[in-house]
Write a structure and sequence with these properties.
This protein is of the alpha+beta class and 178 residues long. The chain contains three helices and eleven strands.
Length: 178
């Protein structure tokens, strides 16, 4: 493990999983894949702070701490990164016809704007650290048909991030989300 500043981050994002979903009739999803980076952060008492610092170092500063909703939602105004600081969860990506992904402490998932997600199951004490690129404020959408045109326009207007939240300007996100 390499030390980056005071943050223990593995030297390379080696294990990347990609998840791509088409619109399912309710959830718009995204032409960009969700990315799961496995085992990025080593467990420690200050892990939430370390995840926040790593995200902020790369311009992902619009953050929060907490869990996830149990109903499917998506953000039409921002991309999001989630780091698992405590516990584990089963995350449903892409809506009812999507895929379930198990996440553990130290994993990071990057969600493109429009991608449906929800918590299917979580351990007691789950703590996620979330962030979006600087200047992008997350909203919460549920796929209401009356809002479709407005939501589609907002998703299309979300800019690509200038850096990968974990690995910066040369990180995998920058090569995959082109």
């Amino acid at each position: 493990m390499a030390s980056v500043g005071m943050t223990a981050v593995r030297p390379a994002v080696e294990r990347i999983e990609r998840y791509l979903f088409h619109e399912d009739g309710c959830i718009l999803n995204s032409p960009l894949p969700a990315l799961v980076y496995r085992d990025i952060f080593a467990m420690s008492d200050d892990l939430p702070e370390r995840i926040e610092a790593q995200f902020a170092r790369h311009g992902w500063t619009e953050g929060w701490r907490g869990g996830l909703f149990s109903d499917t939602r998506f953000h039409s105004s921002a991309h999001a990164a989630l780091g698992v600081a405590r516990g584990k969860l089963k995350l449903r990506l892409g809506g009812d016809h999507g895929a379930s992904v198990d996440l553990n402490v130290g994993d990071v998932v990057i969600l493109p704007a429009g991608l449906g997600h929800r918590c299917e199951n979580a351990s007691e004490g789950l703590l996620l650290v979330g962030a979006s690129p600087r200047g992008c404020r997350r909203d919460f959408c549920k796929g209401e048909p009356a809002m479709r045109a407005e939501v589609c326009a907002r998703i299309a207007a979300v800019p690509h991030p200038s850096q990968d939240p974990v690995a910066g300007a040369t990180g995998p996100l920058m090569k995959i989300w082109v």
